[in-house]
């Protein structure tokens, strides 16, 4: 006999829509799905803007409790960050557990630093490792706060040690891909042996084709689209550098880039320098409705990752909308498109590799048939209804917190 559905306290860095990265959207959509299934959820996360409420019960039934991180303008930000986050989580954890009323509580972490307090106190928790955070630190923080070189090494080393500590203390470890499972093993071999791999989830009710009619790829004037955080790790700069070679063969091609980040200004300058302003657009941050419409209108979606793609949510969303995705052979990218067509995986992550892969797909009429199978590749196996059920089964085996 299974237990009553629990109250789940999600401990994470930030949550959508406060921030719209893949991890943040994953946590929000998993939380929403759990509430729809009959569980209750409180997310404890940092505030990303001053006007965000300390305590918010959203229309989707997810409660969010926010605390303030140290300002990035603080020259000692890196040294103070872990302590401030741990205190912020500690100040809200009791109230977050009480939000569940008579339900028993499962703690579920998605980012290492907020889990340091529960790990030290030996509270049982589930930890989903989305990617090795210590390896992302330097590229993700580029341009966002000052970090002297001697402090960089200390910050990365400290975060790596914290991440291993959180992994070791977790009751249950989850990854969304074999790639991240291998990264966990590299941090700690015994932790890697304990990993439960669950599929990444996406809202396939929302991300679906505009119609059931199959639309072939427009090979004369293709629309290319990518939705990425604008940092070096995601490879958007390499995609821009690839466009002259694409346009040399397909002059009417157009690339739309959605997303924001510290590389935004540099990308705009480079697009101008390369004479691409008529063919490449920076859309900035777009909402979910626009995102879906861009996926639907695109002939090809692109995931040009250079490092550390833990799942590949944007690739999966494009496929759910019936659009093929060309990816680099980095991180979990090949896993997401595995079983569709080898041509969808570029030889490498350099501009020439990306351009060659785009052109190869545009030249191959056989891939129209593959496009007709794109949605079935991810739906229903990655639909939130299935992924939520898998999580509830997992929670049923975790000691509860009262």
What proportion strand?
Answer: 5-15%
Tally of individual domains: 2
- Which bin fits the share of residues in helices? 40-55%
Strand line-up of the largest beta sheet: 3-4-2-1-5-6-7-8
| Unreliable segments of 5+ consecutive residues | none
Q: What are the secondary-structure elements, in order, as H or E?
A: EHEEEHEHEHHEHHEEHEHEHEHEHHHHH
**Outline:** globular
Termini separation: 20 Å
Q: Look at the helices and sheets and give the structural class.
A: alpha/beta
- For this structure, what is the CATH class of the largest domain? Alpha Beta
Largest sheet: 8 strands, mixed
Give the rounded overall mean pLDDT: 92
CATH topological fold name of the largest domain:
Rossmann fold
Query: Cα-atom Rg, whole angstroms?
Result: 21 Å
CATH architecture of the largest domain: 3-Layer(aba) Sandwich
CATH superfamily of the largest domain, by name, is: Glycogen Phosphorylase B
Concise overview:
The protein is of the alpha/beta class and 402 residues long. Helix content is 42%, strand content 15%.
Could you characterize what this model shows?
The chain has 402 residues and is an alpha/beta fold. Helices cover 42% and strands 15% of the residues. The chain contains 16 helices and 13 strands. The model has no long low-confidence stretch (mean pLDDT 92).
């Amino acid at each position: 006999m299974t237990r009553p559905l629990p109250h789940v306290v999600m401990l994470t860095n930030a949550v959508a829509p406060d921030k719209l990265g893949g991890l943040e959207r994953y946590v929000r959509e998993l939380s929403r799905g759990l509430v729809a299934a009959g569980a209750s959820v409180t997310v404890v996360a940092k505030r990303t803007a001053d006007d965000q409420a300390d305590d918010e019960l959203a229309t989707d039934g997810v409660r969010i409790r926010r605390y303030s991180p140290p300002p990035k303008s603080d020259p000692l930000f890196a040294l103070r960050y872990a302590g401030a986050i741990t205190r912020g989580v500690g100040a809200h954890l009791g109230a977050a557990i009480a939000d569940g009323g008579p339900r028993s509580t499962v703690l579920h972490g998605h980012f290492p630093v907020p889990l340091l307090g529960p790990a030290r106190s030996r509270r049982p928790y589930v930890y989903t490792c989305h990617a090795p955070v210590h390896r992302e630190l330097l590229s993700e923080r580029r341009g966002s706060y000052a970090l002297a070189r001697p402090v960089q090494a200390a910050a990365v080393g400290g975060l790596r040690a914290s991440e291993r500590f959180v992994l070791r203390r977790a009751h249950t470890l989850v990854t969304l891909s074999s790639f991240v499972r291998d990264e966990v093993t590299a941090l700690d071999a015994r932790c890697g042996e304990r990993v439960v791999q669950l599929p990444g989830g996406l809202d396939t009710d929302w991300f679906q084709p505009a119609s059931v009619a199959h639309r072939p790829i427009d090979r004369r004037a293709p629309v290319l689209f990518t939705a990425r955080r604008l940092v070096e790790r995601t490879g958007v700069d390499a995609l821009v550098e690839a466009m002259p070679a694409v346009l040399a063969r397909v002059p009417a091609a157009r690339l739309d880039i959605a997303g924001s980040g510290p590389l935004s200004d540099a990308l705009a300058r480079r697009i101008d320098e390369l004479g691409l302003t008529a063919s490449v657009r920076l859309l900035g941050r777009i909402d979910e409705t626009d995102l879906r419409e861009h996926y639907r209108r695109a002939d090809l979606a692109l995931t040009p990752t250079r490092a550390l793609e833990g799942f590949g949510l944007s690739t999966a969303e494009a496929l759910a909308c019936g659009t093929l995705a060309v990816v680099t052979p980095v991180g979990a990218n090949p896993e997401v498109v595995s079983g569709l067509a080898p041509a969808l995986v570029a030889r490498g992550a350099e501009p020439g590799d990306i351009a060659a892969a785009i052109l190869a797909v545009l030249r191959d009429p056989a891939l129209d048939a593959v496009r007709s199978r794109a949605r079935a590749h991810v739906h229903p196996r990655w639909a939130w209804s299935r992924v939520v059920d898998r999580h509830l089964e997992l929670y049923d085996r975790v000691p509860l917190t009262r």
